[in-house]
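> example.struct
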């Protein structure tokens, strides 16, 4: 009599006689045991992109922007000022923000979203060359202001001492 062994952690079975008749051994040898493994590769390319539950959600992201334009979210109060500067309201189809339950389809011609506290944000765009021109003017104004600050702070007048340096380089910690 032999004890039948089972898998890990399971108690041994009852003792059985291992006497086998020769006919049974021949039958067992004739039937081959075939193991088949079915390996299928799952194609996940068609699935929508997963949005994290507790992670960062970009609700101001705009998909479907036309190249050659700079896009910006503008409050309703400032829209007139931006229109005078060459901006125009976005009226073509775009997808705004990550997927969320309260995302409504765009009704009307202007793309807008609620900005909080009763403020509505409108998506406006301007040709890239006008935007670059505006940024160059702004940077020149900032450079001028910084130069005047350095001049006043490093003048050593009125008992001032030390020096001030202002740079836009990489910050080293």
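> example.seq
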């Amino acid at each position: 009599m032999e004890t039948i062994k089972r898998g890990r952690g399971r108690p041994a079975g009852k003792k059985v006689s291992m006497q086998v008749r020769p006919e049974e051994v021949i039958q067992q040898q004739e039937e081959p045991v075939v193991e088949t493994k079915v390996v299928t590769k799952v194609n996940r390319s068609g699935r929508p992109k997963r949005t994290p539950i507790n992670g960062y959600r970009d609700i101001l992201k705009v998909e479907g922007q036309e190249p050659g334009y700079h896009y910006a979210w503008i409050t309703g109060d400032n829209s007139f000022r931006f229109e005078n500067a060459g901006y125009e309201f976005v009226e073509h189809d775009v997808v705004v923000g990550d997927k969320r339950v309260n995302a409504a389809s765009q009704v009307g011609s202007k793309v807008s979203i609620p900005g909080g506290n009763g403020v509505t944000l409108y998506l406006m765009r301007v040709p890239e060359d006008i935007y670059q021109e505006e940024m160059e003017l702004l940077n020149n104004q900032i450079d001028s202001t910084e130069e005047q600050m350095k001049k006043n702070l490093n003048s050593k007048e009125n008992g001032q001492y030390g020096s001030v340096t202002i740079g836009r380089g990489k910050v080293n910690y």
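> remarks
Helices lie at 22-30, 79-84, 128-153.
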